[in-house]
Amino acid sequence: MNNKQYFSLILILGSLTALGPFSIDMYLPAFPVIAKDLNTSTEQVAISLSSFFIGISLGQLLYGPLLDRFGRKKPLCLGLLLYILASLGCVFATTLNQLIILRAVQALGSCAAAVASVAMVRDLFPVKDSAKVFALLMLVVGVSPMLAPTAGSYVTILFGWHAIFIALMALGLINLLASIFWLPEKYQPDPTISLLPAPIIKTFLSVIAEPYFYTYALTGAMAFSGLFAYVAGSPVVFMEVFKVSTEMYGWIFAILSIGLITSSQINSLLVRRFKSERIVFVALSTQLVLTLCFFAGAYLNLLNLYNTIGLLFLFLCCLGFINPNTSALSLSPFKKNAGSASALMGAIQMGVGAVASSLLSVFDTKSALPMVAVMAGSTAIAMIILLFGRLKLSKTIA
User: Fold this and answer.
1) Residues whose CB is less than 8 angstroms from the CB of residue 148 and which lie 6 or more positions away in sequence, other chains included
2) What Gene Ontology biological process does one annotation of this record name (predicted)?
């Protein structure tokens, strides 16, 4: 392919990849406004974020077989159409329950874009170019949380929270049109792929029985669930506890995202010198100490805006080392079922994240303590899983 075709494909796939992060992060600055408009609390609005994570978790398991059986474009376009309709529904939502349900449907639609974009890299580019393309797409995923909340804060200030979902609907429509008219279909559909529950479940059970998978997939999911607690809890912590403006919240969120992006790039250098197992253990140990200090500070009411930002930045830095390595270690035993293992790992991560973020809605306290407690608790559980898993793996190897 020529340079123009190469650039256009990267642009479309990057836009598809950005749909999920923008859908998660763009409406965060509007939480207090949504809560006031729907006669509820900011903590309750966070349930709509949990429902989005649940939708993504289910979609991870759904779209893999569909993309293999029917080709890439049909499930992708149907998913994008579902996303557009759900986004339109969010514009006209008048109750919190409506918003919660519509966000779950919206997530199911956006998940098609995420899964299809990964699959189509393998279809559309030579093997030698795949790593470079994936790196570009991961950069999009990393930069999106920096741009989305800042854009969302300005949209909310200028036009109100409904306009955020109009913008997301427009983004979905652009992706749908680009996918229909400019995205080629190179994959040959395989009608032999079964969509029956029994064989799919059997494959997933064989994956989860692998010690490397359950050790590192569960460790990674628990450690990463602290990020979901941060995303769900940060609107309350920054805008209601520390009284920052909607605009300033967007900028704080963007700055904190730099920690995750930077550490993940440093990790790519560290893995050349150190084993992934060692990096995970050191980073998770550091994250545990950080979150325990964070919890003590919140419990003793010692937190202010600046040390909260600093501790969150260091926490996200730890995740930048943990997540890539636990993902690689989880998938390392698989060749034949790598796709199913990847889908199951993503579903577990999003499912655990949904639980972590939903826990915050139980506590209607205007403080950082619920968010920090979930972050510390999930990190401690991740460490316990890692220690027991490593013990199991050492016995297996011996």
Assistant:
1) 21, 22, 24, 25, 26
2) xenobiotic detoxification by transmembrane export across the plasma membrane
